[in-house]
From TrEMBL:
Transmembrane segments: none
A Pfam family that the UniProt record links to this protein: TY-Chap1
TY-Chap N-terminal domain segment(s): 19-145
Keywords of this entry: Plasmid
The protein, known as: Uncharacterized protein
Residue ranges annotated for the TY-Chap central domain, each copy included: 178-306
Length: 316
């Protein structure tokens, strides 16, 4: 069978809506249109339950459906539903959100997930999706679903799906709201529910030998993450060349020399505030800062960051 041709949908049980098979056929056609680095998320209206798809080009397609890690208490999956997801072919989450991240677990996920290699079996993915919504999550009709789709260039529209586009409420960011969102993200990432700002407006978190700070700047409105690496060193061509070489190989973190010290620094935009981006930048700064201080000290001398005892220790 040509995987890009819509296949005839399988009949659904009598107690389910007759609209599911046509929706399934529509989904087959839409999934076949997803290109590399394009994403489609089908979610239940006014709910955190979803099934999402990521086009991965020559590597095929990944599909995920939400685990209890992302569901409020009122929507938690029960044991019967979890067993049904596993029986239908979904792989169980490989760790908590702070553990099953690409940097630590590139082949896993904090959600239930499946990877489909080329040629992508679009009909089988659509059948699994409909079964998940209709038979396991007990969504009575595809009209209870909405979708969003996007790539790096912005939103994508698939009217042939026949369901409503999800409209997110516009959030007006202020310094105070950004501080609260930053605190929430870092509490989740570090699994430190008691994390708080200090009197200087910083959140201080120890990661190995590094001490990483997070704060919100107001003009412009940014999330700033920084870590003191070395102090008491003199600037020279060799040092600046080394820092430039390090910076060239990093996506977020930059190392700068200022007033006799080296700092690791990340500035993340707060408009819009994207929690995943902030979390990823924080993880990278922690990991890099923890490993590079001793390396640079061996090359250029100086003192590593003096770590006073801190309550907030991000375990790894």
């Amino acid at each position: 069978m040509n995987p890009k041709m819509p296949a005839k949908a399988q009949p659904v049980p009598a107690y389910l809506s007759a609209e599911w098979p046509p929706f399934e056929q529509n989904l087959v056609a839409v999934l076949a249109q997803l290109e590399e680095d394009q994403y489609l998320i089908l979610s239940v209206k006014r709910s955190d339950r979803f099934v999402q798809f990521a086009g991965q080009g020559s590597f095929g397609m990944r599909a995920e459906t939400t685990s209890n890690s992302y569901l409020p208490k009122s929507e938690l999956l029960n044991g019967e539903q979890i067993e049904a997801l596993q029986a239908s072919g979904w792989l169980s989450p490989t760790g908590a959100p702070v553990e099953a991240i690409p940097e630590r677990d590139p082949d896993g996920s904090p959600n239930f997930f499946r990877d489909f290699p080329q040629p992508v079996p679009y009909a089988a993915i659509a059948r699994l999706t409909v079964s998940t919504f209709a038979e396991i999550l007990r969504v009575p009709h595809p009209g209870f679903l909405e979708y969003e789709a996007f790539d790096d260039n912005g939103p994508l529209l698939f009217p042939s799906l026949g369901v409503k586009v999800r409209e997110r409420k516009k959030v007006i960011e202020t310094a105070d709201s950004t501080r609260q969102r930053l605190l929430t993200v870092l509490r989740e990432v570090t699994n430190l529910p008691d994390l708080e700002y200090d009197k200087d407006g910083d959140i201080a978190i120890r990661f190995g030998s590094a001490l990483v700070y997070a704060r919100v700047t107001e003009d412009p409105l940014l999330v700033r993450l920084y870590a003191p690496i070395l102090s008491g060193i003199e600037v020279g061509e060799a040092l600046l060349t080394r820092l430039n070489d390090i910076n060239a190989h990093l996506d977020f973190t930059r190392f700068v020399y200022r007033n006799g010290a080296i700092f690791g620094l990340v500035d993340a935009p707060a408009i819009p505030f994207v929690a995943d981006h902030v979390a990823q930048a924080f993880r990278q700064l922690c990991t890099v800062a923890d490993g590079i201080d001793d390396l640079l000290q061996a090359e250029f001398g100086g003192q590593t960051a003096f770590l006073e005892p801190v309550t907030n220790a991000y375990k790894h």
